[in-house]
Amino acid sequence: MRRSRARATAPTAPERVRSILAAAHSMTVVCDGLQTEVRRLDGTGAMGRFHLHAPSEEVEVPSGPRIPVRLELTDIAPAPVRDRLRARLTLTGLLGEPYDPQGTQSTCMEFGQAVLEDADGRAFVTLQELEATGLDPMATSEAGLLTHLMDDHRELVPLLLRLVRPLPDGGVLRALPVSIDRYGLTLRLEYPSGHRDVRIPFKTPVNHVDQFGIQMHALASAARRLSHAGHLPA
């Protein structure tokens, strides 16, 4: 069961769904007894192949029975962390005709429901919630930002651990960034017998990807101040 928050410090379920749909490089389409692997979504995301509409909307679709369809997507961490699967997303709905994997036009899909499964549990997201949710400005840049952080600024990770509350206990084998969103950074702490994720929120949510560097600089400065104040060893 997901908890409500008085102040957003992590993405909501609709925001996570929108980010996965926008950043996906592949998905599985299950329709009319056939399973099709759709890869290389050409930067358009999953919704470049399907456009969703509510059952009550008037759209031009072929007459005849509707065909159930299921879109399956996985959210994989770009960083080489332990257990890279971050979430599974399933969208169900109806089509007016069988899905054509060779088609060049976007397929019209009558929306049924979206189910997001991640470390927080299972959440059901409606089309109205998706339409009312803006796309996270970090969604399509996250993979590149995580790779850049790992390759060029790895020294920031142990520094940022000073901001985690409560402080991580002993026995951490390594800490790696596992996700970035408009609200903050998530680090994965790996132990000999498992792992856990810790959130480091930005001071304010990011409204444009260009603000990411400013927020990371602010976090690093805050971590250094803790050390200089004697709260933590340098």
Structure at a glance:
With 234 residues, the protein is α+β, with helices and mostly antiparallel strands. The chain contains five helices and ten strands.
Write up this protein.
With 234 residues, the chain is an alpha+beta fold. The chain folds into two domains: 13-131, Pnp Oxidase, Chain A (Roll), CATH 2.30.110; 142-228, Split barrel-like, CATH 3.20.180. Helix content is 21%, strand content 33%. Strands 1, 2, 3, 4, 5, 6 and 7 form a seven-stranded mixed sheet that branches. Strands 8-9-10 form a three-stranded antiparallel sheet. A hairpin with a 2-residue loop joins strand 9 (184-191) and strand 10. The longest helix is centred in the C-terminal third of the chain and has 17 residues, at 212-228. It starts with 12 loop residues before the first helix and ends in a 6-residue tail after the last helix. The mean pLDDT is 87.
